[in-house]
Amino acid sequence: MNLLVSFINLVCFVTMVQSFDLGPLLRIAHCRIQCIKEHSIDGTCDWYSNRSETLCSECWQNCETLETQWDTTKFICEGEEYLRCPACQTACKYRKTRTEEEYLPSSLPAPSRGPVRASANEVAIFLRQVGPSDVNGGWKESGFFSGNRIPSLRQDTWLIVVSEETIRHYSWQEWTPTLESLKEGPFVEASLSWFDVNEQLRKQRDVEQKRFNDRVRQFYLEKYGEKVLVEWRSSQDTPIPEKVFRRFFFRRRSDEYTQPPSLEHQVRQSQSYNGDDDNDNQETYVVSWMPETGGLMGNQVVDTKFAQISLLPGTKYLIRIASNDGPGSFPIEIDTRSSSIDVWKVKKKNDKDLLPWAFLAAIVAALVIIVVIAGVKIFRLSRAPKIIPEEEIV
């Protein structure tokens, strides 16, 4: 009975700190979906300064002002202004029927990897990590996009795609927790840790930086490569030194070279926040688990980077580390069927014992080879004919 009570307590979700409320952003997105459905011709609500404002673009702007500045803009939902403004009517109708509630990032499903896909009647919220984690996790809204104009994921970006029925999100920060142990019993005790998050993200940034460097190199080769070759071949009086020529056309080990202004600005902007956060120990995490086939979701709030959760046996779970300050981790699978637990234990044991046993086997093999070689040499020496000097022959 105590185990059952503790399991139920683990499922209860409690918000312990002030968190990033996505509610206002999601309500604006849902309102703008109505604008696209009612007033858009091509699935967008774009507005250009040199053109007159369209009904869709006016509705798009009204959605944000009614959500964030209701006291000063509510007049557009009243009297003659409301009657003569179709764009106002769409935004005001949504305002009257919407449900105003808090929506925390931990309520989102597990994030997906890019590329981002969306339909015409969906709206994406683009967020960028630009500050310290104690303010909305460092995330700042950087724009809303209709489904056919969604930007790609870049360093430290987060995209939330909203439809009328569902919400999904895409995270550039790909990291997963580590399963430390599984313990059988009435409930399967799973121990998880995520101490290496910064290391995972650092490796991802290194890969992204390498890709960016390759794009810079390609940019220079396409723009100046032919000109440099012609100059190098035709210059006789003052030829280009071979060292300079090779540095231009061949990769240097450090990959340090000048970047074109537009690309340099892009790197500086994308690296304005570098993942190592001094306030990691103050962050609250939400361990979230759900059966792979669907069903009751469990949550446990922790303020460390280690957690132990209780799972029902005979079930395969998807488990992730959510955060009320950002997109959180990608999920891992944990199978609590007894055969899978046995396989996991054997694999874990083999992984721990692999290095010492391999080292011992290598030493034994080396000793055997040395003994065999020595034995062969001794045997050959003993079988070799003995040479008698001529003066000893009578």
Automatic annotation (TrEMBL):
Residues 259-280 are annotated as: Disordered. The chain crosses the membrane at residues 354-376. Keywords: Membrane, Signal, Transmembrane, Transmembrane helix. Residues 1-19 form the signal peptide. This is Fibronectin type-III domain-containing protein. It comes from Cotesia typhae. The lineage of its organism: Eukaryota, Metazoa, Ecdysozoa, Arthropoda, Hexapoda.
